[in-house]
Amino acid sequence: MSGFRDYRNHDGLGLAALVRDGDVTPRDLLESAIAAAETINPALNALSQKLYDLGEQMVDALPAGDSSAGAFAGVPFLLKDISAMLAGTTTTQGSALFADFMAKSDSTLVERYKRAGVVIFGKTTTPELAMAASTESSFCGTTRNPWDLSRTSGGSSGGAAAAVAAGIVPVAHASDGGGSIRIPASCCGLFGFKPSRARTPSGPFSGEGWGSLSVAHVISRSVRDSAAMLDATHGPAPGDPYCAPYFGGRYLDEVTTPPEPLRIAYQRTPLSGVPVAPECVQAADDAARLLESLGHLVEEAQPPGDWAELAQALWVLVASNVSRSVKQRAAALGRDASPADVDRAIWNAVEFSNGLPVESYPDALATIHLQGRRMADFHKSFDVVMSPTLAQPPVLLGTQHTNNPDSEAYGRALAAFIPFTQLFNLTGQPSMSVPLHWTDASLPVGVMFSAPFGDEATLFRLAGQLEQARPWFDRVPGAPT
């Protein structure tokens, strides 16, 4: 393999520019990505599937010298091993129950990735049915953080984040139903952007993810890669049940547009009231000072909401949808689902759903819709909400394994780790984790920013400003040992 020795020093758009200018070939880039994967993945378990032959075929199929090629033409890319269907490949959902689930056609989002020109050569590890904030489960194994192999890379897009942080790819597909883009971005020192509800399509195999909580996008090293990929993928597809508010501009242009002075609410403590680690408070405090130096007004303010009520609605929506997936797959295999099919945390969701009154699901939807209106009122006073992304730096592996026999310990660890992110899945608002802080032990700590529903543009303007003021692109982990 010849590869390209400068591969890691460019983001996705930078690599695509080199291809367009004839400085490198897509094959050079693919060889570099495969070489990095073969070297690094054994220590990380970031890739769940190697699709190197498919990558070779996609390189061969790229139109030579086509000036209309997508913004990411020739750039190596990885799909998260859940929801995104790639024709002729399995989508395991991180579960033995789906180990041979073969996609007959591409999902709409994958079609749009292909039009953007990416070269798909693998899939990334996810915990079973994306049901965890750490990528640890029986079927997928444990994905480790490139910054510290004893710690989590986050979840459920932990494989995607580990692959990007370690330099296998500059940008990777991810999804977020409770923080699953922002959590691993924070853990791995990356930019993680969750778009508004339905900004990117979920079809054609489903109308929405987890009762509208989940939306797909990417994890990246640069802000502009995230913006350009959203330009390539956003917008409704025929048959979508609903869509995000129309945006007629280019998100990429927003990255280089300085924001007007913003009114920023600093949420220091989560609605649940769980303690926040000093390193995470320090990260947000430092960010507040940086924002003020950039001309923004930062004021401590707590978003409205009863967390007990919201947490119940969240669990009803997640558990019901996960239970449906398990039961449907078992039925397709000609049998009933059983505890032996899935890890303990997933079966807990099935058992919980079995006991729900029929009104629970519409009650949960009514609760999250009401919370969306509460937040809309809150945003009359504030343009953006800022908080730590997580309540702890990347935690040690083990307790959040989805087959932990101590379900109470698993639940406590989850609640203590991710109390901030889920609010913006409930309301459908755009939200991002920005890598602005590292601890004394060189562990990344993200700061989260969230905007009113449909207002990704404000976040991209702010992210571009923060990236210029406190660059992070060259801060990367060393080789895993």
Descriptive notes:
By secondary structure, the chain is α+β, with helices and mostly antiparallel strands. It has a single domain (about 5-305, about 365-470), classed as Amidase signature (AS) domain (Amidase signature (AS) enzymes, Alpha-Beta Complex), CATH 3.90.1300.10. The protein contains 15 helices and 15 strands. It has helices at about 10-20, 25-45, 50-60, 110-115, 160-165, 180-190, 225-235, 250-255, 280-295, 305-330, 345-355, 360-380, 405-415, 425, 455-470, and strands spanning about 45-50, 75-80, 120-125, 135, 140, 145, 150, 170-175, 190-195, 215-220, 265, 295-300, 385-390, 430-440, 445-450. The strands form four sheets. Strands 8-10-9-14-15-13-11-12 form an eight-stranded mixed β-sheet, sandwiched between helices. Strands 1-3-2 form a three-stranded mixed β-sheet. Helix 2 runs antiparallel to helix 3 (about 50-60), helix 10 crosses helix 11 and helix 10 crosses helix 12 (about 360-380). The radius of gyration is 21 Å and the shape is globular. It starts with 11 loop residues before the first helix and ends in a 12-residue tail after the last helix.
